[in-house]
Amino acid sequence: MMELFNSLEPLQKYFWIIACCASLIFIIQTIMTFVGLGTDADVDAGPMDGAVDSVEDGELSGVFSFRNLINFLLGYGWAGALLFGSIDKRWLLQIIAIGVGLLFVLAFVFMFRQVMKLSHDGSFQMKEAVGLKADVYLRIPAARSGRGKVQVSVKGSIHEIDAVTDSKEEIPTGGQVKIVDALGNDLLLVE
Q1: How many CB atoms are closer than 10 A to CB 73?
Q2: What values do phi and psi take at 58, rounded to 5?
Q3: pLDDT for position 107
Q4: pTM value surpassing 0.70
């Protein structure tokens, strides 16, 4: 095995070493992710730290990470190792390998963003109830002189929420109302 490796040209050795090391780290990262230990560490950019943070807050969020460095090296190393015999011009081989490495990073960032779109915060937001009809559970005093309760169904689940009204008349238990506005995190305005 070592004889085969020693017979390779220096650039070809370079590509194979990068491809194998990046593959090993990629496999370890993947296993750690499935086990639940796969967290990505922040990179300290020294004096450029503010510039990196501003880039991460924009469209390039998450591009500068150890995981994406490994993704780049994975594409770069394997492209260089596999295309070494096919492309005679070494500068062209390097450009193609860099291009494949960048494509790997873009592909993984795209896949990560698509997976993140699948995650959904299932918590109830009061503003989701605005415009819906609700049943009065406890009478609602007139002119915001006190609180009552309504039951409203939002996305298939029933919520019991405090409510007030601007109406000059009390709304009795069992009545039906329309939710006009969300007043904070625990109060609805109904009519």
Answers
A1: 20
A2: -95, -145
A3: 93
A4: no
